[in-house]
Amino acid sequence: MTPVQQDRRAVLGFLLAIVGLHGALTLSGQWHDWAWPAIAVSFIVLVLICERIGRHVPLRARKIYERTLALGFPALVLAVWEMAGAMELISPVWFPPPSAIGRALWDVTVTYDRFSETSLLGRPWLIPQEFRAGGLAGVGVLLSESHVLATIGRVFAGFLLGAIPGILLGVVMGINQTVRLMLDTTLAAIYVLPKIAIFPVVMLMFADPFGEGPKIVVVALAVFVLMTINTMTGVRTIEPVYLMAGRNYGAGPLQMLRHVILPGALPVIFAGLRIALGTAMIVIISVEFLRAKQGVGFMTYYYWEVLIPEKMYAGLVVVMILGVTLTGLLHWLQRRLMPWKR
């Protein structure tokens, strides 16, 4: 029997095992009591089935197969979640099904909250009308009510303010041992501090402690420490042969920095940027929980306070969408700056 035939028989056996397990529990009237263990076993068997199938996917269809796994598994989880809510395996009050969360997401998108005078996207469908009535100032007022734009603006400003100096200092620490010895312990001590814990200290630094400044600065501090450590590591892990080649070809300090050190450290730098971006999102959402009247974090916490869990989950979905979108933009930038890694 060939390996292909063996795997086909194995896949068929796994499928029959799943059907037999759920069928036996259903016929015995115990499926509801044993639903979650049965579902867990089914997911494990599904992994085994996908592994058997993946062994024989031709190279030309490999990307389609991998994309199907990447998108199909979350879709399957959502389907199980929906089914579990409908069959009362979980509380639909505290764990609303995906369909209810989708309706809530649509509602917060198209509805203007007159109590907080905010909306999710800033009602972009009214931009033509506001532009005719008040010009760009009217459009700006309209967009200023957006939770999403408020959060993105804080993340973007804090990310730039922290990443650029962090990369520069990381390069210096990677090159110069004296600076590294002076700052390494201090950065290690600051790194382990919960960034949300220093938010009250940051608030004391500003004349308006409830304005945008403290929110942006606490994000910048979190990004700065991460980027400094990652960039320093990237510079120190450059292969010595590249440095020797640059010196042998007569490269000066600036040429070494531009053509050898920065390109050599870029993979680690971008890995740090991805981590720092995720940290920036976590920090700003936490800050918006505590001290904000606008932003996706504020919206999520607000709907928790008023006990509308499906809209709270909708806020979490928006956070995940923002994270995936911003990470995708970072990947695009990485491909542009590192064409040799494509």
From TrEMBL:
InterPro entries, per the entry: MetI-like, MetI-like_sf
Keyword Transmembrane helix: yes
Transmembrane segments: 36-54, 75-95, 152-175, 187-206, 218-238, 259-292, 312-333
Subcellular location: Cell membrane
Keyword annotations from UniProtKB, A to Z: Cell membrane, Membrane, Transmembrane, Transmembrane helix, Transport
Main subcellular location of this protein, as a coarse class: membrane
Keyword Cell division: no
Membrane topology: Multi-pass membrane protein
UniProt xrefs under CDD domains: TM_PBP2 (cd06261)
Residues in ABC transmembrane type-1 domain copies: 148-330
Pfam families found in the cross-reference section: BPD_transp_1
UniProt similarity note: Belongs to the binding-protein-dependent transport system permease family.
Name used for this protein in its record: Nitrate ABC transporter permease
